[in-house]
Amino acid sequence: MNEHNLPIRIISKVVRGYGRGSKELGIPTANVSRDDISCSMSFDHLPTGIYWGFGRIVDLDGGSDDDDSVLGKVHTAAISIGYNPMYNNKEKTIEPHLIATASHPQRHASSTKETLFQDFYDKTIILSVVGYLRPEFPFEGLEKLTAAIKKDIVDAENLAGESNSTTNQEREWVQSSTGKDIL
Ligand code: ADP
Ligand code: RBF
Ligand code: MG
């Protein structure tokens, strides 16, 4: 364990957020549920900040019309935990942006050239928060926020590509969890 209590493991339903449209921001984030969640530490004690890690979306209800470009695969994630100080949220959120590999058709598909999958609301996310990147900031304007998040995405990809025991262990856990584990 370190000062940020990392890694943090989470299994949760993907819920709707504030509908403020990070898709218009060009960077969708899969919001984790406050209620339908199993987490290796208590939600209220999660330290706020911007992190990187790994996430995988699974469909525990076994629907058939699913977009299998996102389902099942381990994705690197750039993750926001906190109150989005640009917006002064009252509730803490955990919001990973899942990053497709460079050659994937959905990579660079959004308006800011980041990953845009089809929606996967109500599916289950298996998430490991592996490393800390920076604090959350109240940026002056959406352009500065977007530029900072794009840098976070590059940092997340680079760090996730380094092979060390924690990274390998957490990628392996995200890959092998059934999404039904109690953490
Ligand atoms: P909300 O405020 O409801 O979270 P967003 O604009 O942040 O809305 O969009 C989030 C939704 O977009 C996710 O729940 C998911 O269904 C979908 N989505 C598409 N691509 C991604 C991605 N690369 N990372 C995370 N979510 C994505
Ligand atoms: N919101 C902030 O207010 N300040 C930030 O510094 C900030 N950094 C983020 C970094 C990443 C990697 C991600 C995915 C989100 C970040 N956000 C930040 C959250 C952003 O405001 C939020 O995802 C959108 O408002 C949509 O909910
Ligand atoms: Mg979101």
The overall number of domains is 1
Which fold name corresponds to the CATH topology?
Elongation Factor Tu (Ef-tu), domain 3
Bound molecules: adenosine-5'-diphosphate, riboflavin, magnesium ion
Which strand-content bin applies to the residues? 25-35%
User: What is the straight-line distance between the termini?
Assistant: 16 Å
Radius of gyration from the CA trace?
A: 15 Å
- Low-confidence blocks of residues: none
CATH architectural grouping: Beta Barrel
Q: State the fourth-level CATH superfamily.
A: Riboflavin kinase-like
Number of strands: 6
Chain-averaged pLDDT: 93
SS field, number of helical segments: 3
What share of residues is helical? Answer: 10-25%
Q: Class, according to the CATH hierarchy?
A: Mainly Beta
Q: Order of strands side by side in the largest beta sheet? A: 2-1-6-3-4-5
Give the biggest sheet.
Answer: 6 strands, antiparallel
**Shape, per Cα inertia axes:** globular
Topology pattern, helix = H, strand = E: EHEEEEEHH
Model description:
There is one protein chain. With 183 residues, the chain is an alpha+beta fold. It has one domain: Elongation Factor Tu (Ef-tu), domain 3, CATH 2.40.30.30. Helix content is 20%, strand content 29%. A 6-stranded antiparallel beta sheet has the order 2-1-6-3-4-5. The longest helix has 20 residues, at 142-161. The two termini are 16 Å apart. The mean pLDDT is 93. Adenosine-5'-diphosphate (ADP) binds next to helix 1 and strand 5. Riboflavin binds next to helix 1, strand 4, strand 5 and helix 2.
Topology, pairings included?
Layout: E1 8-15, H1 22-25, E2 31-39, E3 49-58, E4 75-82, E5 93-99, E6 124-134, H2 142-161, H3 165-176
Antiparallel strand pairs: 1-2, 1-6, 3-4, 3-6, 4-5
Bound molecules: adenosine-5'-diphosphate, riboflavin and magnesium ion.
Riboflavin binds at residues 17-18, 20, 22, 25, 27, 29, 50, 78, 80, 84-87, 95, 97, 136-137, 145, 148-149, 152.
